[in-house]
Amino acid sequence: MKRLAPLLLAISITALAACGQQASKDSAAESAPEAKPGLAVTGAELVLPAVKGNPAGGYFTLVNNSDKPVTLAAVSIDGAAKAEMHETKGGTMAPLANLEIKPGETVKFERGGKHVMAFDLDAKLTAGGNSELTLTFADGDKVSAPIKLAAAGAAMEHIEGMEGMDHSEHSN
Ligand SMILES: [Cu+2]
Questions:
Q1: Which of 59, 83, 118, 165 has the highest count of CB atoms within 10 angstroms of its CB?
Q2: For the domain 34-169, what is the CATH superfamily, name and number?
Q3: How remote is the CA of residue 3 from the centroid of ligand 1, in Å?
Q4: Which sequence spans correspond to the domains of the chain?
Q5: Radius of gyration of the chain (CA)
Q6: 117 CA to middle of ligand 1, Å?
């Protein structure tokens, strides 16, 4: 999207000039470099591990309100060296390489289902704070959203929800 920067700047200025008016659908879509048209991330939460050094669990809801299918290809969390998409099925979890979300579809990353596992957490990630979640799509577009950092107590629940699976050995 870098090549669009001058255009985006021009649109931003236009948007400011037209403050109070409803932006047209197209310009609204292009005015935010970190927003993929029609995609919305809500309720993002990163549950910090009870034991330092263990991975954190990331949860969020992604809605595709565009008229095209999108393919979520990667996730990252500011302050985590690595983040992976996983899916828990029948008590075991496996990496999720990518995920197609159809037009109108809502996908939940939640305990006991699809989730994000974040590894090698920076000490700056502390409960009660915020970080940034970035979703990267197969076409290279990205969507970023704030992600709340939750206390380790909830992480215990997370592990129970995974039927006692030891996440510390889940780094590949
Ligand atoms: Cu996992």
A1: 118
A2: PCu(A)C copper chaperone (2.60.40.1890)
A3: 36
A4: 1-32, 34-169
A5: 18
A6: 5
